[in-house]
Specification:
Blueprint: H1 15-20, E1 31-37, E2 44-46, E3 54-56, H2 58-70, E4 75-80, H3 98-109, E5 114-119, E6 133-134, E7 137-138, H4 140-157, E8 161-164, H5 171-181, E9 188-195, H6 202-208, H7 228-240, E10 244-248, H8 254-263, E11 268-272, H9 274-285, H10 291-305, E12 309-312, H11 315-322
Parallel strand pairs: 1-3, 1-4, 1-12, 4-5, 5-8, 8-9, 9-10, 10-11, 11-12
Antiparallel strand pairs: 2-3, 6-7
């Protein structure tokens, strides 16, 4: 049999050859580690649906952030669970809120670590929706006013990047205008530009107690059937001043990550969400998969699709695996 002169298997023969011609490279620099912050001190409460993840008080969140930094992870993103919830989520912009305290504590302990803060209201409202409700419907523009208050509060605490996540129309522009007016023109914005109404968020909602008390979020989060809409959303956010645009979730949306990456000339983030993490952990605990290999394969797939930044609960594990 006559073979062609080029034999692809030549360059797969050894690990050294495979490394030399590898097209996609996964690095610890790609990761952002999510942290859930709660009131109190000395708290490290396991999250049952996210094995290995915890609700942390500020002191313990600071320790967890330090562990991430020691592994070379460049950034953490904070989610707050307040002591009190109300109809508008007013704890979100309280100077003494748990996220604000965590920002100050982490930046003091690790000044070079990039601290990001998720800016949404589902964790802070007593109804579990992402803003102000009027007659059972989310009031977009009234919610923008509160969002502007929240991001300025995070900026005052010293956050590096705010991450508005409610998929409100005009949310990036409102954040940018408010930050600039208050003298925080150097505070970055990572926009949840294409956040789909997804069943993959289930464990997260347990972690932050944010399940809607009635209805759902399909009226403002994206329909998972759409791709072109994601590109339009990302383009709008870029025009309003976003520094980073995000696709969320990741695994069922690799085509969306690629489409946004091809069209938008900004860093692209992908959120490897709680349900994706939980599926790997559950399968690994049943002995059905090789956990270490699956973690790296999954994150590499997200990177290969076009993500520059990966928010993942597996950040610590992946950093250790990559250091071997």
């Amino acid at each position: 049999m006559n073979y062609p002169d080029y034999r692809p298997r030549r360059m797969r023969r050894t690990e050294g050859l495979r490394r030399m011609v590898r097209e996609t490279r996964l690095s610890v620099d790609d990761f952002v580690y999510p942290l859930f912050v709660v009131p109190g001190s000395g708290i490290e409460k396991p999250i049952s649906s996210l094995p290995g993840q915890y609700n942390y008080s500020v002191d313990k969140a600071t320790d967890a952030a330090a562990r991430a930094a020691d592994l070379g992870i460049p950034s953490v993103i904070l989610f707050g669970i307040p002591e009190h919830k109300d109809a508008v989520g007013s704890e979100a912009w309280k100077d003494s809120g748990v996220v604000q305290k965590a920002i100050r504590s982490i930046k003091k302990a690790r000044p070079n670590l990039v601290v990001q803060a998720d800016a949404c209201f589902c964790e802070y409202t007593d109804h579990g929706h992402c803003g102000v409700l009027h007659d059972g419907e989310l009031d977009n523009d009234a919610s923008l006013e509160n969002l502007a208050r929240a991001v300025v509060s995070y900026a005052k605490a010293g956050v590096d990047v705010v991450a508005p996540s409610g998929m409100l129309d005009g949310f990036v522009g409102a954040c940018r205008a408010s930050l600039d007016e208050q003298g925080f023109d150097q505070t970055g914005i990572m926009a949840y530009s294409a956040k789909y109404a997804s069943a993959y968020y289930g464990p997260f909602r347990e972690a932050v107690d944010s399940a809607p008390q009635s209805g759902d979020r399909r009226g403002h989060q994206m329909d998972y059937c759409n791709v072109a809409e994601a590109v339009r959303e990302a383009a709008m956010d870029a025009a309003e001043g976003a520094d980073i645009v995000m696709v969320k979730p990741a695994l069922a949306y690799l085509d969306v990550i690629r489409a946004v990456s091809d069209e938008i000339n900004l860093p692209i983030a992908a959120y490897n969400v709680s349900g994706e993490y939980a599926m790997i952990e559950a399968a690994a605990r049943n002995g059905w998969i090789d956990r270490d290999r699956i973690i790296l394969e999954t994150l590499t797939g997200i990177r290969r699709a076009g993500a520059d930044i990966i928010i993942t609960y597996h950040a610590l594990d992946a950093a250790k695996l990559l250091a071997r």
